[in-house]
Amino acid sequence: MKRGLIGLLAALAACSSPEEMSAAVGPAAGAQAGAAQTTGSKAPARESAQTALERRLAADAKPFVMDEAEQDGEAQRIFAYSWPRQASAIPGLVSVLATDRDTRLAEQKSEWEDQRLGCSPDSGACRNNSIEVNWQVISDTLRFLSLSSSIYSYAGGAHGNYWRTSLVWDREAGEALEPQALFASPGALGEAIRPRVCRLLDREREERRGEPAPAGSSEWPYQCPGMEDTVIFLGSASGTRFDRIGVYYAPYVAGPYAEGDFEFTVPVNAAVLRAVKPVYREAFAAGS
């Protein structure tokens, strides 16, 4: 069940809250749009870039929330899926998310059926199955809507698993993209951000573990994960261009489950700008 939207998009062509990540890499509340046109003239009413984007949404663009539960004796199946009104305002994106929802639901029902058939009569936990997917806005610019999802899954055992995924909707092209697809290659983006991120990760692991990581170790749980194990969130402090990057590692990726997940935010710098594909260059700006 841990298959994310990457596989889904290919077919069509996991704890920190999303609110905390949105606060870190999302639009600043004070980002201003508009200014006095002439010296001495009365300045027009100002509104934030985010408010301007919200204002253009259709009145009938509502958040989507699905909660489904099914009981079979002591066995229980729970499925929840949601996305924000910004996504509801984009029919093409709704189609992508709805397909992801339906695919996950069908897989869960099949898995739950197998669980009930294969579960020992004296074991209750293995009959329970839960999936929760919650999409949230990271940033919203004129061209791009950047989203992250928080996913929780339980299919029996000692505990459930949780992780995060992300996507960027390109309004101009009318397509959903993996954030890393906006860069020349995962390697190019990795060269631009990993030195900073790896330092932040080592500091955080040292704080959680109470001891420093062995210098230069490439062995789990001391290694700095590669880009194939890194989830990227594209954020904007101004609400106009991507100027910060969120980096996320799910449990087990950078340490044992008990340590939880790890996430960091780094500003876009010259190295990151060099790694951006030319076609998307205007969508990025240096951050601070």
Can you describe this structure?
The chain is of the alpha+beta class. The chain is built from seven helices and eleven strands. A hairpin with a 2-residue loop joins strand 3 (64-72) and strand 4. It is flat, with a radius of gyration of 21 Å. The chain has helices at 5-12, 18-25, 49-55, 85-88, 91-118, 186-209, 270-275, and strands at residues 32-33, 47-48, 64-72, 75-83, 129-140, 144-154, 161-170, 175-177, 231-235, 244-249, 262-267. The protein has one domain (5-29, 48-283): Heat Shock Protein 90 (2-Layer Sandwich), CATH 3.30.565.40. The strands form three sheets. It has a six-stranded mixed beta sheet, sandwiched between helices. The longest helix has 28 residues, at 91-118.
Question: Unreliable segments (pLDDT under 50, ≥5 consecutive)?
Answer: 6-18, 28-44
Query: Taking strands numbered 1, 2, ... along the chain, how are they ordered across the largest sheet?
Result: 3-4-5-6-7-8
How many structural domains in the coordinates? 1
CA-to-CA gap between the ends?
Answer: 38 Å
Look at the structure and give the CATH class: Alpha Beta
Q: Can you give the mean pLDDT?
A: 85
- The CATH architecture designation is 2-Layer Sandwich
Tell the overall outline: flat
What would you call the structural class?
Answer: alpha+beta
The secondary-structure element order is HHEEHEEHHEEEEHEEEH
**CATH homologous superfamily descriptor:** Fervidobacterium nodosum Rt17-B1 like
**Biggest β-sheet strands, sense, barrel:** 6 strands, mixed
Q: How many distinct helices?
A: 7
